[in-house]
Task: structure prediction
Amino acid sequence: MNEERLIPKPKISEGVEVSMPNNAGNECLKSCQSCDEDEIQIPQSNKHFAVINPSKMCQPMGAVQAILGIRGAMPLIHGSQGCSTYMRFQLCRHFREPVNVSSTSMSESTVVYGGEENLLKALETIWREYKPELIGVTSSCLTETIGDDMGLIIRKFKSKHSDVKLPPIVPISTPSYSGSHVEGYDKVIKSLLENMAVQEKPNDKINIIAGNISPADVREVKEIMDLMECPHIMLTDNSESLDAPHTDSVSFLPSAGTKVDEIQDSANSKATISLCKHADSGAKFLEKRFEIESITGPLPVGLKNTDRFISAISQIQKCEIPEKLEIERGRLIDAIIDSHPYNYQRKVALYGDPDVVSGLAGFVAELGMIPAVVCTGTESPRFVEDMRLVAKESSGKPAVMEGCDLYDLQNYIQDNPVDLLIGNSYGARIASEEDIPLLRIGFPIYDRMGAQRTPIVGYSAGIRLVDTLANMILEKYYDASGWEIE
Result:
């Protein structure tokens, strides 16, 4: 089976057919030399000396987010104290939730003599004091550089406590000096499945690998699955752990999320759907090891991508599309029609995680807007190929910037003006200096409230996005009488 698959020509409602790309995934990547090179632009940066205002974060950041989607899990960063402090700071100011991230607190002496003793002590303390259901041990740039063998150290810890039942302890290699938080998330999912998935009897479920999306988006996906009466396993589920209701109790571990036995049971599911293309390594592992069908992306943002997601579920589960989803889809189409006079031909600059950016770029193209420039800090041929597909449905010629920072983005839009910015809070300075409205989507968002409660996935979220975009255009480019400002 191909590493990635898109369901061909799904019909979401009677008389409405969704067009599909002829190539997807690795097949398209292999044939990209034959693509029309003029469909997109690849701007060249003259800046090679530094990264200024990066459009990505380190691998442990994504790893911690994935681990926090597991009930009773404790993330442990094998590195300096500053690493875990930085994670807590960023996560708390985005999600507005208390977040616990443990550290082995490496110092100068442990760098010289190795961090084995620190990791053994940390595991002992976490196990005895917090009683976690799982410990996810991630490396850092420091421990990767000195070459600590976390797997060997963990085996020593287990051997020392062979007479008692320990929680699963999973090592994950996440060097901070390479890749990004996107790869960090992906590595956690794959490591969890490699170390824990056990095939027994079929469970008639679908695994959903969420990727770096908000708790609100995870909830939206779960609601769609429930509407379609499709049993599922979320890998992983941050919908409550990173957007928890206020209670009188205090918990140092996530009180909700994917259960350990669900991770183990994932090897018995009938298929795995990876919502993000950059988080599908775990799905490919399950397909190779246990022959579980793997379906990869795109992120279900907007009309067509949500159609594809729902069609995939329908065909795997052999179930009808619920009327409620049909109605929501119709409302989204109506919202697109209503806002078309205001959104049409407006140029948009998008930046952030590659799957979020490509999903949103496809959506704004559906609205008649032009995704004029797209930027991600992750180097990814998949992202470039996704943008080639988006370009075919857009009247513009997107400038595609992979592995770039927001300094490069700002330089580009100074010479090629746009009407709207879409991305995280790191673009606020660009929006202010260039006098461009900014729609805050992605991670991190620290200068506005409610990012963890604002979905972009699914039909109903698409309706809110359409209205928000149109209202931002009206506020900025139309006068009080409703006339467009010349």
User: Anything to note?
Assistant: The chain has a mean pLDDT of 89. Residues 146 and 310 are 47 Å apart (CA to CA).
